[in-house]
Amino acid sequence: MAGAGAAVLGLLLLLGSPGGSTGPPRDSLREELLLSPLPSGDLAATFQFRARWDSELHREGVSHYRLFPKALGQLISKYLVRELHLSLTQGFWRTRTWGQPYLQAPAGAELWVWFQDSVTDVDKAWKELSNILSGIFCASLNFIDSTNTVTPTASFKPLGLANVTDHHLLRYAVLPREVVCTENLTPWKKLLPCGSKAGLAVLLKAERLFHSSYHSQAVHIRPICRDASCLSVSWELRQTLTVVFDTFSVGQGKRDWSLFKMFSRTVTEACPLASESKIYVDISSKTQENELLEVTPLPLSVHEAPVQGDRRTYAVYDLLSPSLFNVSRSLNVQLKWKRPQDSLDLSTPVLHAQRYVSGYGLQTGEISTLIYNTHPYRAFPVILLETVPWYLRLYVHTLVITTKGKENKPSYIHYQPAQDRRRPHLLEMLIQLPANSVTKITIQFERALLKWTEYTPDPNHGFYVSPSVLSALVPSVIAMKAEDAEQNPLFTSLFPSSDGSSYFVRLYTEPLLVNLPTPDFSMPYNVICLTCTVVAVCYGSFYNLLTRTFHVEEPSRGGLAKRLANIIRKVRGVPPL
Amino acid sequence: MAAPLVLGILVAVTVRAVLYRSSLAGFISERVEVASPLNAWKRVVEGLALLDLGVSPYSGDVFHETPLIIYLFHFLIEYSELVFMITDVLTAVALYLAVQDFNKVVFKKQKLLMELDQYASDVAELIRTPMEMHYIPLKVALFYLLNPYTVMSCVAKSTCAINNTVIAFFILTTIKGSTLLSAIFLALATYQSLYPLTLFAPALLYLLQRQFIPVKLKSKGFWLYTTQYAALYLCSLMVIVCLSFFLLNSWDFIPSVYGFILSVPDLTPNIGLFWYFFAEMFEHFSLFFVCVFQINVFFYTIPLAVKLKEHPIFFLFVQLAIISIFKSYPTVGDVALYMAFLPLWSHLYRFLRNIFILSCVLIACSLLFPVLWHLWIYAGSANSNFYYAITLTFNVGQILLISDYFYAFLRREYYLTHGLYLTRKDGTEAMLVLK
Question: Which ranges does the record mark as transmembrane (chain B) (predicted)?
Fold first, then answer.
């Protein structure tokens, strides 16, 4: 690897590189794994692989890719992408039993992209981009079209560097029906520099990862500052994978976890290409006296960080430090609970939400969203983004927002009504949530009858409504110092905070399943015939009345039947007809 | 005569007011037979709410009313119940006055034809007397006001009532003989829902008859008057459309209203024939059949005009019925309008062949509509075919009713000119057939 790099460097110097650059751009890889036991006894494992590449992809014609995957690099330069976020999720994060999520993603596939302002036709670029991503990740992202794409105005601000924020350059789509499986994991793993052969990625075995309650894999690409002066731009690719192992199905009822039990593998070495490779285990406990967890082998260092308004302690295993593999060649981190968990350890998250559909029958219905603010004394605003497909016709005059029994008017509403078969409904609202309250948002809809070809092959399963997105700056209970992005990339990306007093949270609600009235699929020919018959009845009657005139009927001489009847009557002695 | 009419109006208004305050009002406004995507009140409120939010009501696919309705209800939204009751009353009064005038015209024409010996000798029982025609205007007004279809349409606050008022005023001004006002109301009716365009022909024929201009293609007077009427009509239509442009400063309402009426994208079930047909249509043929079904509404006009050029008001009645049956989003309010004219042809009763069975069919279907809807949508035990079958039966019933009246009308005309008691060559009683 190093030899090849030197040869390229020599070649460039020989040819006289045009920009007078000092060599191929630097890139670095960091891999981190965060194991956090959840209040209900399950365990969440979050992997993050962060490749950072100091290169201006849009300006220079780049052809040499090392740690940054070529497929994604070419995508960014061809379609002038500024930010790309793709996630594929199976399952739903149960905020009430598991606590605040680290990186929540909606069920199914979610893709949102900010384009550069030099893009002329954003819709065309979006269509082509989603098709190419569909090929790269073996997911049916090609089903993303104008009927499920929206342009949010307030919810999805760029997470990387941005100087122009014209929201017409943003596109957002969710496919709630998308299923995630091994086919999607394999290309995702292939994008990693070490593949699944070394480092933390050896733990990513599909048969264990999909035997879980929640599986979410994501790819995030964004531009970041190269250094503190921010004169030039680097590209950051973060691949994250979050998986929650269930106590009962994986743990067989016992709450003792280990890497081997979860992944059926242990870590033997760090990825040689990584500059940093760490495992963090959350060992924080609410009360300081007795520790909750016992971790073996003993961690070499302990890291404290303010996370989501809470001070947490993490045991750190640095895979690159030589002392780690002294005792045994493989690292199998084991967690044991020292005392049973009690309700003190269960912390309700400050912001959580749920959504459901109510009503009966197939004509109308109502979507209700409940947003809970459990902070004892602070009120804060939340932006709610709802995307509803066009065949559920929303009536915005029935939108009602109540908090503690009183009406709560949103300070900002952006509503874009749907156009049949062209675009979905988009409703964005900024709602103020008072402290310690429940806010209920209800809106009524009407179900449309679709053409028989527009139904899925299993129409009585229902139609999915994408999860709604809640974005908020949640005030934290303790003061937090902003973490340095370079020192602790995991913590800044998992728990971003803009200033010390609040942290950014993006939540997704459940997707909804709504039934639509269906026509009879076996009847197209019959319906056409019957309706045309009715039209023909009218045509026939009117044709007769318009073209014929009345005549006095002349008696006919009688056909054969009449003559025969008369003969029989003569025989019987009865008068003839 | 005014007193019974006022009494009838009071009864009608009371019935509507009682229903508004009862729990049935919500149930009736949800009924798809009464409220279609074109004229549901829920959508009017939604359009006005969108306007308040700063979004054009025509940017989505929920609001398909003309800007006139926005103008009207922007200020009158709180008095909506009163507005709909007043429109019903206005329609009834307009129909009353129109039929009163029409009866005078009919009587004069009959007298003229009798003096000219156009009638056969033994048709005394077919001649209409002022006595029998005395109560017809009242019957027409009451038929409209107390028709359950009209009451339901009013309680549901469907803007079909406003369309009916405009058409009633158009009929009134046509029968009174005012060319300008007739053209203006016809333009308004066409602007509201495209199909009254076909009423141009009967109105023109009536006005020509009233001015004693013979309908001959070579006659200069005929073409002069036709162009005059057509020009007045088109100019008023242009003025109304341009006024609508200035409401929201965009032409968005044209595809939203007229494009919607013609291309039928919304397949919400109603009492018409379009919805299930296009729900089960192969995509390839969709455009073809949309064109066929829309042409179907318009193409009866010329043949009917040729056949019924001496009887333009009957032509108007048949045309109204054809519009109500074959329009893209019919409701029972449209049916109520042409049914209000049935007392005008009560003298045809002896020639109607199937009136008993047809009225049974229509009543039974009207009662079965909500039942089968409930079974499909709420109980889940029936499917869409049940509701579709009742739709078909209802439409067949209406079609046969109109053709029955047409048959009776033509038969009476034949008897008037050829004599009532017809005998064959050998002296036995003759049978009349259509050949």
Answer: 82-99, 166-187, 193-209, 230-251, 257-278, 285-306, 351-373, 385-407
